[in-house]
Amino acid sequence: FQGGDTCEYLLSSGRFLGEKVWQPHSCMMHKYKNSEAKNCLIDKHIVFIGDSRIRQLFYSFIKLINPQVKEEGNKHGNIPFEDKSASIKVDFLWYPEVNGSMRQRIKSWTEGSVAKPHIIVVGAATWSIKIHNGSNEALAQYKINITSIAPLLEKLAKSSDVYWVLQDPVYEDMLSESRKMITNEKIDAYNEAAVRILNSSSRNSKAKVKVFSVSKLIAQETIMKSADGLHLPESSRDTNAMILMNVYCNKIMKPIDGSCCQPQPPLTLIQKIAFCFFTLSIIGYLIISLIHRNNYRKNKSCTDLESGEEKKPAISTPNVSTLEMLLHSFCKLGLIMTYFYLCDRANLFMKENKFYTHSSFFIPIVYILVLGVFYTENTKETKVLNREQTDEWKGWMQLVILIYHISGASTFLPVYMHIRVLVAAYLFQTGYGHFSYFWIKGDFGVYRVCQVLFRLNFLVVVLCIVMDRPYQFYYFVPLVTVWFMIIYATLAIWPQIVQKKANGNCLWHFGLLLKLICLLTCIYFLSYSQGTFEKIFSFWPLSKCFELNGNVYEWWFRWKLDRYVVFYGMLFAFIYLALQKRQMISEGKGDPLFSNRVSNVLLFISIVSFLTYSIWASSCKNKTECNELHPSVSVVQILAFILIRNIPGYVRSVYSSFFAWFGKISLELFICQYHIWLAADTKGILVLIPGYPMFNVLVSTFIFVCVAHEISQITNDLAQIVVPKDNSTLLKRLLCIAGFFSGLHLFSAVQDQSRH
Description:
With 756 residues, the protein is of the alpha/beta class. It contains 29 helices and 15 strands. Helix 11 (322-344) packs antiparallel against helix 28 and helix 14 (413-441) packs parallel to helix 16 (476-492). The longest helix has 31 residues, at 269-299. The radius of gyration is 33 Å and the shape is elongated.
């Protein structure tokens, strides 16, 4: 740990990911859009002072504000730029040498009441080398001139951001005859002099002139592509301009994926309360553990010295009370949440940008596929979508989604479209699983609802408190929660139609189908009525749950993207259970699901359908258009997979225990990845071990999976305590939970008021 100032890293170190993506050491760069650049620089005055290389940087910088700007005007003169809509003024001042004229210009900003620029970017040397033919006298004079300018720059740095741009290397083989004296050896000597003089002053410790040395590293990789051997290619100077924008704007705009130069956010009131709660839980658990240990020692067996016989204690093992289990769970959770906070809110661990390559996505996919096949075992039952099979399905889908996220594969549209099917498949299972339970069991009690809601939402509520994020930020959990409540409402409202009742009279089946048709109609109406949807979820207290950045558009987008697939899951469950009840399918071990002929035809259709969808998804050219079709057609590949997986008897009777293990903690894996595997709220990658990418992924993945598994255990333990089966006790707990959320809302209101 070398301190929290990532600006130093941004300005001085980094590497290329691929050919054009620059990765600063230890932090993430945000790619600023024109609108963001204008919002950051509103009412600002920026000045670039120097030679033709600084002019290049000037043009790249103003193109971030207005991409339509053309590089016109007197090359050896001053160039003004102004954006009147945002009151931004950017000037290039032609001073190709560090001399008295440059000193006089800089001095003018330090005197009297003259308005000082907010950002000053200075750099020059190649003209001095060229004009004086690389003489040592010119270098000596350069040192004298910088020494006279340094105090002025330091004085300006007290109120403005001042950057000294070191000279980039040249590609000597491409230099014209008039520039042959500009050698990399000379440039290094000039840079060394500038760094030594600018960093030597004791006054510079507080008002520091920032040395922009990262440009040298970028040029070393790209100068070979220069047109004349002296000036950088456009992509390289654009990178320099983006770095400059990140240095100044990240602390103002605070972009999620721009961790460079961002200070650690202060603890909120709710976070402080959470910290106190977890601290007290840890202390309480330690006290109870010590008391129990002392009691156990007093009662443990001892050896009778006279007879040599062992005497049995009155109490052989300490009884674990509900309070101790509660404190134990919160103790572990507190330690885990501390790790979450340190990973993604404190500036302790490094973060890096994602960079997609085909190999970074497909090689791990092949690797986990081989592992999954290796751990093949027989299932306990051979029914369609039995428990082992659904766990396996969730497991391999979750692993693929994790690889998709860490590799940044969302930039590759065919992969994106297939991952959308996997997310839809999770929701399909939600519809299938909950419908099957309510249809077969007929259990619409409060206990069942509370158990499901607690297991789905516990971790997310804790993370909302500890990580200071809105509920909708973890979009998948709100999505699954709302769909569960919709399924429950559909089946629980009068008349309650369950399998037991329908077996007595077939007309009840039509009644249930009528309910499903009504549900489909409501979904269809809401999907084409954004205004109605937003009004429903804009009412308090729903708005507190589903708003993100002040509106519910993100929630509308997420809901609409997979709006039909839960309905398809419910319908599939209904049809499957009806066929099963009438013994129209064979689910014996090793038996095909249907007769050989029907099974072969369905299997052929399924394989063709599966491949057809993949071909269509791979040929997608526009994400928006494909997203419009996705809700209606994603079920094709889902159903095709189910039939391929279940029609052959042998395939249905085996499963991968490797994938099934991950499937049991798939929800925890999906949520935990936000902060302790990825970083910056999934925008980047957590770096625990810098410099060794593969080893870093292995270590962070091991910790991440262990934490997810532990949280799953904690959630199960707490669910038994918080949601008891006794109705009167459950009612009391629900009142306590209501009080907790009321207090949380009150503290949130106080917190928001203090922020404003």
